[in-house]
Amino acid sequence: MGISFFPNIPTEEIFSAPHKYKVNGKLVATKPLIYGGSIIDDFYLTFKDGRITDYYAATGQEALQNLIETDEGASYLGEIALVSNNSPLAQADTLFYNTLFDENTACHIGIGNASPSTLQNGSSLSEEALLEAGHNTSLLLVNVTFGTEDMKVVGMKEKGNDVLLMEDGEFSF
C-alpha cells in the first residue's frame, strides 16, 4: 500500500489548499496567464476574507473578469503552490502558453476548485465535510503564477508561530 499522490507531470511544486475564507492580501502575477485563448498580463488580484474583491489586468481585463465570474467559487482560491527558483522548469525561463506547464515554472495560486487530496482521507469526504474544512468548490481551477528572486514566504502555524518556508525564492528546509 503506500501513499497515493496525484502530481502534474512534470511537477516541481509543493501545494496545499488555503481555507476558503482566510486569504487576505494582494497578489501580483509575474507571468502572463493564458486562459480561454486569451492572454491576461500585467495583472493583480486583491483578496478580502478569501474572496477576490478587486482585480485589474492591463491586457485581458475582460478575460480575467469572465474567469472570476465563472461561478461563485471562481472568486476564491483552491490552491497555493510553492516552486523553487532553482527548479529545472523555473530555470528554463520559458512561457509555454499552456497553464498546465506554466504553473510548474513558478509559485502559483489556483483560482477555483480545491483538491480533496490536500486533506487526509479527503477523497472519501462528503461535499459537506470538505466545505466545513474550508475547501472551495468551483467548476474550474486556473493557476496564476507569482514570485521573484528575492521572494520570502512565511507560514503561520495554528498557534500563531511563524515558520520560514522560502527565502530568496528558495525553499528553506
TrEMBL record:
GO molecular function: aminopeptidase activity
Protein name: Aminopeptidase
InterPro entries the record matches: M29_Exopeptidase, Peptidase_M29
Keywords: Aminopeptidase, Hydrolase, Metal-binding, Protease
Organism encoding this protein: Oceanobacillus jeddahense
Secretion signal span: none
Pfam families hit by this protein: Peptidase_M29
